Amino acid sequence: MFDYDGVIVDSLDIFATTFLEASRSCGYAGIKTHEQVVGLFDGNFFETLAQLGLSSDKIDEILGDAHKRKVRKYLAKVKPFRGIHESLKSMSRGNVLTVITSNDSQLVWQFLEKEGLTCFDDVIGADKERSKMKKIQKTMDRYQDLPAFYVGDTKGDMIEGRQAGAVTVAVTWGWHSAEKLTEGTPDYMVHTPGELEKLLS
Q1: Which of 82, 120, 174, 184 is deepest in the core (most CB within 10 A)?
Q2: What gap in Å lies between CA 186 and CA 170, rounded to an integer?
Q3: Is the model's pTM score more than 0.90?
Q4: pLDDT by residue (tens digit) across 104-142?
Q5: What CATH fold (topology level) applies to the domain 79-200?
Q6: Are 150 and 136 in contact (CB under 8 A)?
C-alpha cells in the first residue's frame, strides 16, 4: 500500500500552492505558508484541520471543486519521482499494489494513467474515506493472505499505518524529513526507490 503525494509523485509545491489559494478563496486565512501546510500531515490531515477549528463543511468547501480545478490545471507539471516508475513495476510482479491517499481518487487515477503506471489494483482516496487507518485496515481485510506494508512520506502516514497494523515504511524523498519521520517510529526507512524495491520485492 502506497501513499501518493510525496511517495509516487513530487507534488508538494503544487499541493501547497493550490491548497493556500483555495483556502483564501473560501475565506480561511489561518494557514499562510507551505511549511504550515506540510505540518498538517503530522497526523491525519483532516483531523488536524478540524483541530484548527475548521468545520467539516468548510474543509469540504476548501478541498472541493474549486481546489480540484486548480490541481487539474497543474496536473501536466506534476512528475513522478525519479526511479519510482521502474521500481513500482518491479514490485508489482510479486505484490498487489494499492494507493491509499488523502488526495482525490479520480485525480490520482488520471495521473497514473497519464504516466502509464498501470500496476495498481486500486486507489482509495479521501472521497471514499478520510481515515488512512480505516482504508489500510479495509485493504488488509481484502488481502488477508498477503503481508501488509504501508509506504508513506509523513509522520502522519507512519502513525496511521502502525495503528492499522501494517508494517510501516518511511521514504525520505517526500514531504517530511528523516528526522520528522522518525517521530512516527517507522518499521523501515528507505532513501531511494531502489532501496524500497529491494525491501518489497
Answers
A1: 174
A2: 6
A3: yes
A4: 899 899 899 989 999 999 999 999 999 999 999 999 999
A5: Rossmann fold (3.40.50)
A6: yes
